[in-house]
UniProtKB/TrEMBL annotation:
Protein name from the UniProt record: Adenylate/guanylate cyclase
PROSITE patterns named among the record's database cross-references: GUANYLATE_CYCLASE_2
Domain Guanylate cyclase: 244-379
Lineage: superkingdom: Bacteria
A single GO BP: intracellular signal transduction
Keywords on record: Membrane, Transmembrane, Transmembrane helix
MF (Gene Ontology): adenylate cyclase activity
Transmembrane segments: 62-80, 101-133, 139-159, 166-186
Cited InterPro entries: A/G_cyclase, Adenylyl/Guanylyl_Cyclase_3/4, MASE2, Nucleotide_cyclase
Length: 479
């Protein structure tokens, strides 16, 4: 007299969710119990109750005709919901269950509310309402069932006795128990299926996350983030933007590559790229590519803090890279690499074309334009340890970074000579109150950034400096 609440395809309220779950479950391994089977079981149980009641004389003989209706209705309902326009109706299962509640309530009223058979039919209805539609469906089902019950009771009147014979009562309870047990079993199976699907979906999600993190190693974090959050489509498209472009390479790397074994050279280069990449990401730079010993980074896309801040972040990154190179050089020297490797850098700011270049099946997120060529030219003109910037960059950073005029150069693509400047240091780090100090000689190297030193580290550094000073004084006295 009602539909089974265990069709997995309708277990999720959202179409997208149901599609995901269906894709994870083997329908052969966990067979669903569709509405048709559940309704057939319920109405067959009701037909058995009617047959027993008529033959025991508690139901009128004309109710034998209801047996045919009880055995026919599930097939009619199946045709209506699967092969007619009703199949497109939203929440069709809940609507058909309301019809079942109307029929069930009318039947209970027609038999005069005989206790055990009436309770059995009402239990099957309420059980289905709660599982299929929850409390809301239970309320609606109860209202419609009660209404049809009173209508039937008004037409046929109450039974002479509300007590049913023993056989009819036992049969009613067995039929109801069988229906509840069967539907509960399939509900349990479907619940297990949903849990398995949830577990599989979670595993696939974790695998996808792990894979995406692996793929992110081949993309700049900003680009990867914009793609995986849906902010940027993966298609061939470009746009014009004003960016700060950075180029660097290692002076003396070619000579070093002739002296070192390929394995050791690869380890050194990876160590260098790793350290410089950390600095670039710290300042929000988009790492474009590594070519040989060169690094290309740009600021202003896919995220930007404004032209002035982008340029300042780019030059700040270059200054820290220059400082970081001193630390790396000391480490390489301790490993037996005596060639004095120096980094040289060039920075320009201007409008470039940025976006995805290439083919539909192989893209590269990069930038092109004359400003890119200018940054590369500045890098090639820089002396070891020098940072050269264009006039556009200088005009954006000069309030916070000290620069020295280096004259003009002629660059292909520019109609006039281009003024260039050498970056000296942060203005805050110049003068007697500067936070950064460095000295490097044969057998001695010192790199000090007082702003980054904690109180605990400060004492250890002072102790080490005092020990070093005492040692030098002792050797001086001996001489």
């Amino acid at each position: 007299m009602m539909s089974a609440p265990v069709d997995l395809r309708n277990a999720s309220s959202g179409a997208g969710k149901s599609t995901t779950v269906d894709a994870q479950i083997d329908p052969v391994a966990i067979p669903p119990m569709p509405d048709y089977n559940g309704r057939t079981l319920a109405y067959t149980a009701t037909a058995a109750i009617i047959t027993s009641g008529v033959f025991q004389g508690i139901f009128p003989d004309w109710m034998l005709w209801l047996i045919a209706g009880a055995l026919t209705w599930p097939h009619i309902a199946h045709i209506l919901t699967r092969r007619t326009f009703l199949r497109h109706s939203p929440r069709i299962r809940q609507k058909m269950l309301i019809v079942d509640c109307l029929i069930g309530g009318g039947f209970v009223g027609a038999i005069g509310v005989v206790a055990i058979p009436s309770v059995s039919v009402m239990l099957m209805l309420m059980f289905s309402c709660l599982i299929i539609g929850g409390f809301r469906q239970w309320v609606f089902g109860s209202v419609f069932m009660t209404a049809s019950l009173f209508i039937g009771l008004a037409i046929f009147g109450p039974a002479e006795s509300f007590q049913a014979p023993l056989i009819t009562s036992i049969l009613s309870l067995l039929a109801t128990g069988l229906y509840i047990c069967v539907t509960a079993f399939y509900s349990h199976q479907q619940a297990r299926a949903l849990m398995m699907a949830k577990t599989q979906i979670q595993n696939q999600r974790e695998q996808s996350i792990a894979l995406s993190h692996k793929l992110s190693k081949y993309l700049s974090p900003q680009v990867w983030q914009s793609i995986f959050t849906g902010e940027r489509d993966v298609r061939l498209e470009t746009q014009r933007k004003k960016l700060a472009i950075f180029f660097s390479d290692i002076k003396g790397f070619t000579e070093l590559s002739e002296e070192m074994e390929p394995e050791a050279l690869t380890e050194l280069l990876n160590h260098y790229f790793n350290g410089m990449s950390e600095v670039a990401l710290k300042y929000g730079g988009t790492i474009d590519k590594f070519v040989g010993d060169s690094i290309m980074v740009f600021f202003g896309d896919p995220t930007s803090r404004g032209q002035r801040e982008d340029a300042f972040a780019c030059v700040s990154m270059a200054i820290e890279m220059r400082k970081h190179m001193k630390i790396m050089r000391q480490k390489w020297r301790s490993q037996g690499i005596k060639t004095p490797l120096e980094i040289r850098m060039g920075i320009s700011t201007g409008y470039t074309t940025v976006g995805n270049f290439g083919a539909e099946n192989r893209m590269d997120y990069t930038i092109i334009g004359k400003e890119v060529n200018l940054a590369s030219r500045l890098e090639s003109l820089a002396d070891p340890g020098e940072i050269l910037v264009s006039y556009e960059t200088f005009s954006l950073i000069k309030d916070r970074i000290m620069c020295r005029d280096k004259g003009e150069i002629t660059v292909k693509g520019f109609g006039k000579p281009v003024p260039i400047y050498e970056v000296v240091d942060f203005r805050r780090d110049m003068g007697p109150n500067r936070s950064f100090l460095e000295h490097e000689h044969s057998g001695f190297a010192m790199y000090l950034d007082s702003e980054k030193i904690s109180e605990r580290e400060r004492q250890a550094i002072l102790t080490a400096l005092e020990d070093a000073a005492d040692r030098l004084r002792q050797e001086e006295e001996i001489r």
